[in-house]
């Protein structure tokens, strides 16, 4: 239990900052690398872990096990740095210990309001760009691509006057990922209200196909759990929103969504389908190099096999089996939980999120991977009190 209200608030603010603010490329732009951000997470969370709550044994054992497994790959490549390749994931494991059920609920509420405000700013930035507004500033993303500031939002994607807003993040897909994750947590905590629909609808400003797919799946989940009156109201709001969205933003939807769904008879693929090419590339790499040791760096894959993108096999190709074992183990546990949970649709979407964004040890993403993994464990043990959040 928390010893005071101030400690509770501090833990909430620390968790919020580490999970949703640190992923912003602006911090990387001013000199904070992934390693330095991990150190910040450890410094902020360690007092809670070691002194207030004396750290859970499963966290310490998980960290030791990861270090031991990674040391196999480090020994193979004779590179001691590979032992701490999952350092970001380790730092979030420590951070996760400051959560209890109450703090998780407070975090989800705070994050929901945070993203509602951010999405409104995204729409303002989109309208500003459509009216001919030019970027008012530029930073460089960690992947070296420029990220432009359009009055109230970042965007690294522009077609004429049309942008895909990304809020404070490096790309629109990241913003969509965090929004969907928060909505999933809201629903898991039985927060079934209008705010979920609002987040999903406003989140369409990212023009992400994945966002649309996840939103449809989540909407069906919500639809089954509300009254008939609420169903009619939600359906009317949804239909009106779609009509307005299409009428006002048809050119944008056509360029960024509908055009990508057209089938190209010459290539035998949809126009926007680059995943199949990337999957072929990663299969080619793995068939020639095996699954155990990985590429020892993305450039080693790209030079010979081209881009392998973000897919379920990316971690295996880049890091090898031993380093990526926590990712595949987590996905396996979540997959098993789908068959035993009453909220299987939510866990299924959680799996899909990380299959198309397999970020095992990335700032922000790792926190949600751990949260979803713990939810899956909780569902398997069928504890209605969410035991693993209670200190």
UniProtKB/TrEMBL annotation:
Coiled coil start-end: none
Transmembrane segments: 12-30, 36-53, 58-77, 83-99, 111-130, 172-189, 196-222, 234-258, 316-339, 359-377
Keywords for the protein's UniProt record, in alphabetical order: Membrane, Transmembrane, Transmembrane helix
The protein, known as: Uncharacterized protein
Organism: Breznakiella homolactica
């Amino acid at each position: 239990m928390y010893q005071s209200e101030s400690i509770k608030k501090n833990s909430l603010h620390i968790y919020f900052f580490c999970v949703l603010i640190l992923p912003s490329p602006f911090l990387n732009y001013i000199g904070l690398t992934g390693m330095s951000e991990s150190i910040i997470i450890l410094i902020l969370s360690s007092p809670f872990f070691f002194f207030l709550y004396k750290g859970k044994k499963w966290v310490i054992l998980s960290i030791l096990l990861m270090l031991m497994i990674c040391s196999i790959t480090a020994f193979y490549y004779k590179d001691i740095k590979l032992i701490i390749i999952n350092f970001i994931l380790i730092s979030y494991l420590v951070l996760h210990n400051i959560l209890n059920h109450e703090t998780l609920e407070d975090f989800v509420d705070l994050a929901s309001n945070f993203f509602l405000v951010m999405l409104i700013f995204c729409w303002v930035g989109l309208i500003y760009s459509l009216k001919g507004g030019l970027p008012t500033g530029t930073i460089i993303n960690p992947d070296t691509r420029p990220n432009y500031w359009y009055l109230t939002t970042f965007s690294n994607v522009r077609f004429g006057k049309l942008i895909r807003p990304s809020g404070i993040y490096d790309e629109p897909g990241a913003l969509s990922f965090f929004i969907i994750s928060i909505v999933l947590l809201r629903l898991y905590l039985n927060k079934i209200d209008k705010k979920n629909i609002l987040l999903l609808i406003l989140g369409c400003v990212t023009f992400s196909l994945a966002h649309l797919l996840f939103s449809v799946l989540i909407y069906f989940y919500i639809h089954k759990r509300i009254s008939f009156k609420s169903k009619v109201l939600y359906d009317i709001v949804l239909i009106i929103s779609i009509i307005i969205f299409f009428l006002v933003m048809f050119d944008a939807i056509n360029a960024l969504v509908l055009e990508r769904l057209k089938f190209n008879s010459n290539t035998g693929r949809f126009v926007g389908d680059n995943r199949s090419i990337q999957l072929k590339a990663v299969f080619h790499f793995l068939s020639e190099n095996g699954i155990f040791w990985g590429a020892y760096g993305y450039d080693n894959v790209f030079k010979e096999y081209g881009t392998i993108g973000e897919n379920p096999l990316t971690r295996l190709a880049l890091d090898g089996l031993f380093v990526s074992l926590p990712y595949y183990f987590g996905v396996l546990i979540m997959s098993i939980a789908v068959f035993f949970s009453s909220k299987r649709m939510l866990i299924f979407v959680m799996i899909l999120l990380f299959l198309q964004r397999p970020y095992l040890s990335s700032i922000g993403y790792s926190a949600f991977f751990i949260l979803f993994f713990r939810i899956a464990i909780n569902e398997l043990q069928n504890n209605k009190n969410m035991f693993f959040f209670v200190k």
